[in-house]
Design goal:
Oligomer: single chain
Largest sheet: none
Shape: globular
Radius of gyration: 22 Å
Length: 455
Amino acid sequence: MPKTIFNTTEKSNFILNMKEENVDRLSLFVLAGVCIIMTLSQIPAEFSYSLTDVPFLALGISGVLVVVTGIILILRKHMVKNNIAGLAIMLFLFVWSMVSYYNSYNLKTSLWGQDGRYDGLVTMIIYIFLFISASMISDGKIERLFDIMTGAGLFQCFWAVYQLFPFGKSYYRNLEAIAEKNVYLTSGLAGNPFFFAMLMSVLLSVSVFGAVFGSDRRHRIYYGTASVIFTLAALQTHTVSAVIAVIVIYAVSLITAAVKHKLNKISLIMFILGIAAIIVELAAGYRFYDGGIAWQDSFYRLGVTGYYSFTYSDFDVNSLKEVYSYFWNEALEAIKDFPLAGTGIDCFSYTQYKTSNILQYELNSIDRPYNDYLFLAATRGIPYLAGYAALLVYTLVNSIRNALKNNEWYYKAMPFAVVIFMIVSIFNNSSVGVMPFIWIILGLSAKNRKNNGQT
């Protein structure tokens, strides 16, 4: 007998009676569509500051699709008992986000996010449904989804190549923040090199496994080529998170391939080219620009903080140790002052008002501490950070369990992707253009559903 809800008619409940294959196609279409839409929506923002709200509008459109898809999957009972733990953690994160919102410095900022960042409560709700939808997609669609996500990453790399040309539009060709010219850093369509480094690192952790364990030669070539390109793009960000990520990824994946006797011709070429790129880059006077990038982004690109001043600073912006110590101490001070509810979602910059009521006059002010864990604790409170840590551990443990039970290469890649994200987050924050990719991977890592809907 056809399913209905609230005693309505069969025709009005066509969603509940869709064929399983059509539901899976819908899930794939929406999740892949989010990756494509969020990638393309960054293009206008690359040409004008007045268009930096386009990615947020795109996220809103994507969010409607994701929320509807998530509700459809729940109504069709695709939520199995083993998914409940992940859903419970997400529910806690939402509830505590509401607590943070109502105790925030600024309700509007906390709801929609800071101008140019848009990482507010509304965005958090969209991420929740991205996680839910990804956790309930069928096995048969995962590889196709990774194909598309990798393709979106490659498109960003092609844009990064465009940024390297003199005629290419880039906010990071010069770093006025530290008086450096012609550094030609890549940011792709992520907003800044930090965010681009996170995207490249996570996608690289997936693509190397696709190159080694891919289901066929065509896929291995595709992912092997993507891996080399992602490596070059990540290194050109000149951020510490990118360098740590690519070294860990190649070391672990090479050892895994050797132990599993999977060093085929394609993966061997990939390892040779990727490792050669790392050695050449680091040996050729490689410099880290983490400090300069932070103020180039927040002041010169978005105008949401003051600028870096050597005269009025007690740290060296070119020293990784000193600049991260400064970033993290600012976050720790905020955590100390607001341990439970934080400053409010995306309200970190409000802690920087020290001598003026105009933030742009506050020299050396920051809106991101470039440590995602400290940022979440500072803006949403320590309880939120504890819940977020629980979610990461849950997805990691579940992805390891899936990798042990399944032979498909993408299940083997997921635990590695989660670990790389956890490592990169120590020296990074992210953006609305990157986090949809991350939340999809976290959702896939929390997946327990088979094609037939059973655990």
